[in-house]
Design goal:
Elements: E1 3-4, H1 6-13, H2 17-26, E2 33-34, E3 40-43, H3 44-58, H4 63-66, H5 71-80, H6 84-100, H7 104-118, H8 120-135, H9 146-166, E4 176-182, H10 189-200, E5 204-212, H11 214-223, E6 228-232, H12 242-252, E7 257-261, H13 263-266, E8 276-279, H14 282-291
Parallel strand pairs: 4-5, 4-6, 6-7, 7-8
Antiparallel strand pairs: 1-3, 2-3
Helix pairs in contact: 3-5, 3-6, 6-7, 6-8, 7-8, 7-9, 8-9, 9-10
Length: about 290
């Protein structure tokens, strides 16, 4: 069974670690285990509980009342909340619950129901984006079990590709972007999401995908007029040398701006060649996409 730290619960639920500790002291719905060094760890069931508690508390239920509810009663109360934002949050929470249970049939059914009701574009923007942001798949990969991540991202990959295909084709454009991941980088879900947002904004995309040899990228840049090269670096192979990577890009990409985002970018402190922009946060990346 997967275990989660209090920081994981904070990231996924939106409840501050300090508040979670207070709830543990005063109420019974959370009973974390302790490591030999006295560090709290939480089970998948406790993660599901905190998601239910946080949603009910956010929409008006007192913690003292929630503490007396059974799991079934919590679910029943959640279904009774009519606010639109609460309904969206409930779907995202359900996706997280199905993911930690590795119930991919239920995971996909949650998405398909929302797609049938709201359409694929709203599903990606309102549900998939919030899910990715909450569990950290888009920008970080260390908050969930790798098996859970692979199962969930494969389903999400299919849905985002479907969303990209459903957008109107771009016949006229002013900007052209190459999206790629370098060799030994296979975490494609963030790049696909960027592809969706760029096409939604009318930007033409050459999508190369994962594990692209530098020689192939260089050939495409030299034979086509490209405004931007964009890569989202999450977790390349250990042998990956970022300094070498950005210097190679700078050498053959003169005339094109290079945009790099992802977890690897957040931690980089070294020099950056001219023409390369590092987007160190989600907000920076979204602002760049909107500015094109």
């Amino acid at each position: 069974m997967s275990s989660y730290s209090i920081k994981d619960l904070e990231q996924i639920s939106g409840i501050k670690a300090h508040t979670i500790r207070i709830w543990e002291q005063r109420y019974q719905f959370l009973q974390p285990s302790r490591t030999t060094t006295n560090i709290r760890t939480y089970s998948s069931n406790e993660l599901k509980t905190i998601l239910n508690v946080s949603l009910l508390n956010k929409y008006g239920f007192k913690i003292s009342h929630i503490d007396k509810m059974t799991s079934e009663q919590m679910e029943e109360k959640i279904l009774s909340i009519n606010q639109l934002d609460a309904q969206k949050e409930r779907v995202v929470n359900n996706l997280i619950k199905e993911m930690v249970s590795m119930n991919m049939l239920g995971f996909e059914q949650q998405l398909d129901i929302y797609i049938a009701q709201k359409g694929i574009e709203k599903t990606i923007n309102e549900i998939i984006f919030s899910f990715l942001e909450r569990v950290g798949i888009l920008w970080v990969t260390n908050h969930i079990n790798p098996a859970q991540e692979h199962l969930a991202t494969n389903v999400l990959r299919q849905k985002i590709i479907y969303g990209i295909e459903k957008l109107p084709p771009i016949t006229k454009y002013t900007k052209r972007v190459i999206l790629f991941l370098p060799e030994a980088e296979y975490h494609e879900i963030g790049l696909l999401f960027v592809h969706f947002l760029l096409k939604l904004n009318g930007v033409y995309v050459d999508y190369l995908g994962a594990n692209v040899p530098m020689v192939d990228l260089e050939y495409l840049v030299k034979t086509n007029k490209v405004d931007y090269l964009f890569s989202h670096l999450t977790l390349p192979a250990k042998k990956f040398k970022f300094d070498k990577f950005i210097n190679q890009l700078a050498e053959f990409s003169k005339g094109s701006s290079i945009i790099l985002s992802g977890q690897l970018i957040q931690d980089y402190k070294g020099p950056v060649p001219a023409g390369i922009q590092l987007k160190r946060s989600l907000i920076d990346t979204l602002q760049f996409i909107q500015s094109i």
